[in-house]
Amino acid sequence: MKRPLYEASTQYKNWRYSPERLSQIRTTMNEAAVGVIRKTFEAYEPGSSSNVSFVNAHEEHLLVTFYVHKISQLCGHFRFPEEVEATATSYLKRFYLKNTVMDWHPKNVMLTALFLATKTTNNPISLDAYASHIPNTVASDVLDLEFLVSQSLAFEFAVWHAHRALWGIWLDIQNLPDSPPDIAQTQSSIYDSALGHVRAARLTDAEFIYTPSQIALACISLVAPALAKKWLESKANITIPENQTDIPPRPSAAALSASIEAIESIITETGKVPNVEAVREVDRRLRTCKNPEKVVGTKAYLARKAEAEKKAEEKRNKKAEGQKTNGAGDVDPFGDPLAEPVKPGLVDYDDDDDDD
Amino acid sequence: MATKSNYGWLQGRTVRKGGHASSNSHTRSNTPQVQSTSTTIFGGGIKDPSGRTSEYFSMDDQCPVCKSDRYLNPKLRLLVSSCYHKMCESCIDRLFTLGPASCPNCDKILRKLAFSPQTFEDLGVEKEVAVRRRIAKEFNKRLEDFDDLRSYNDYLEEVEDIAFNLINNIDIPATEERIAAYKAANAALTSLNLQREEAEALALKEQEDLERREREARAAQLAQQEQQEREERQREERELIDKLETSQKDAHKIVAKSRIAAAKRSSARAASSSANSSLLGMSFGMDYAKLLKTRTTKVNNVPDEPHVPFLDDYYAYDDLYTVRAEGYDDIISEAVRRDREGIMRAGGYKVEEAWNRALLTAVAGLDAAPLSGLDEPNSLGDVDVVMESV
């Protein structure tokens, strides 16, 4: 059996979760982070953590969702293509599956994720131009987090997008046997509102659970259920040639309907920009419960920095020590003497002067 | 160069122009004819028949013995002793005409004949070249003269050792002894190799001669062709004028007729000359091809297998969709398709490929069932790694 191409993507392999798993990841990470930060608080000022109200996993997610929305605003300002926006939102969401907002504030990570997305999608913009268009930001703010973000993404920069799948479906609808030839023009409102749903889906967890093609199909189905059904059936009805027995079965409308419905409900229920007041409240509380090791100027920050410095120093010393001991030993810097004479004829040392 | 020529002109001497006009001021291609008796003795120190190297010459030259410099004596010529000290010709005349005497710098006994012109600015290089030239004459064994590569390398090492000692004046007597011993032991082989080298040099020269002759022949042929062409054209013109004079016919017709005839002739000529030149080129090209062939057979034969980057065999959904040949009514790609000058497609963008990718994405993973439950490999381990490393 041949493997479908999509299953080779890192998106399928490493960034696909069940809904239960998603919420579990978020809660465990939040709990772990709270534990660590509480300990840090206690280490410097015992008893200080008792009246800190930490943000919970749901509030973290709310904040991230809000900054996903901010990315699309920023993209509109820069006139970036759809692909940059979609990629940047994926990066931001993926980043916060591995990190907590209490360590890294999304308002900073968002800028880096967007800048990274311009590069990975081949829409480059100069860093200075980018930073100068964003208030209170300098180039180093964007660059400092770049490696951290890349590392959290496990350097898997390629993302499959629902908006491209939507475009593909829209093109393919023109190929349906009984569709009017000018369907793309007369029905263009379907495409436009479906694209609106795709954008709303970016605010949700749909991309972690379903494939881009399923999300796109659900978005069309939200606008024109009959059309979506017709297209899916046309795909399901393509007969498999007899000489090709090693390909997977056709997508079946029956099996897909549950997924489509689930995506539809996700989009309609959670595909909204969070309430600004609620976000502001979370952000206010976040200021008090930030990881002190990550806030410049605090005691914990300085202590951690000193510790890191010490470790680096130790490493350097160890390296120098290693070199010294190596050098002192009786090891020939040019390697061991030749083991045995090389037999002639193995290598052709004839130069051009003597052609005999 | 200019200053020197001027001197010659002022003194009413004819200055011989060098083989190449573009030598820099630090070398002189034509040594000024010094009016000392010793010129004939010292002349021809540079052993380069091609004349590409020339005697070293500098405007700051100063004789270390008598301190006269080029300003005082424009004809100053410094020569190098066998102990690698410089001296001007008049000093050499003064010191060594009456027989061998000691060097003013190092007290080594020198003779007048042992002085030679300087080729390199750095006398260290001068010495090294001389030593190596001498060594190369004596130690001319080849790889074939040895049983294995190891012993050949040992031999090379020894030669290098001797050369180094001689250049840096280390243990000279012992080194000379080594050379003498080697000479005695390998006299026959050395002379044989010398003969071989001479034969090779001769063969190389013959080859070069052959190529040169071939080039000359081709150039001569070309010149001849051109000459022929010119003559023919002149003849045609004359004929035409004669005809116009004598004939009663319409002048336009005559001109047109002769033009056609001329065009025919020139095309025939071009064809024959191209055939000729291709014949010439072929003989040369064949030689070259033969040479190449022998070269390539010498290099061991590596099988040329095509490189296969990926060996996996994915299902790319290619039977689930087809890109419409007549294109789509598509607002997204409209700007690109309307772009007549192809500015947007300059980088190789093809709208068909963009459509293909969109269609592929539309059907990719349609049947993939969503995951459910918590039974999947724990990937939470990365979190600590990331947080730890920052």
From TrEMBL, chain A:
Please name the SMART domains in this protein's record: CYCLIN (SM00385)
Q: Write out the GO biological process terms.
A: regulation of transcription by RNA polymerase II
Question: Which stretches are tagged as biased composition: Basic and acidic residues?
Answer: 306-322
The answer on whether this UniProt entry bears the keyword Methyltransferase reads no
Disordered: region residues = 306-356
Which residues belong to any copy of the Cyclin-like domain?
A: 69-151
Sorted alphabetically, the keyword list is:
Cyclin
- Residues folding into a coiled coil are none
According to its UniProt record, what is one Pfam family this protein matches? Cyclin_C_2
Q: Which Gene3D superfamilies match?
A: Cyclin-like
Is Ion transport tagged as a keyword? no
- What GO molecular functions are on record for this protein? cyclin-dependent protein serine/threonine kinase regulator activity
Q: Would you identify the family this protein belongs to, as annotated?
A: Belongs to the cyclin family.
Provide the protein name: Cyclin-like protein
Organism of origin is Lentinula guzmanii
TrEMBL record, chain B:
What Pfam families does the record point to?
A: MAT1, zf-C3HC4_5
Its GO CC terms are:
transcription factor TFIIK complex
- Locate the compositionally biased regions of type Basic and acidic residues: 227-244
Q: Region Disordered: list its residue ranges.
A: 15-47, 215-244
Record field: compositional bias (Polar residues)? 21-41
Q: Name one GO biological process term.
A: nucleotide-excision repair
Database matches in InterPro entries: MAT1/Tfb3 (IPR004575), MAT1_centre (IPR015877), Znf_RING (IPR001841), Znf_RING/FYVE/PHD (IPR013083), Znf_RING_CS (IPR017907)
Question: For the RING-type domain, which residue ranges apply?
Answer: 63-107
Protein name (Swiss-Prot/TrEMBL) = RNA polymerase II transcription factor B subunit 3
Q: Which organism is it from?
A: Lentinula guzmanii
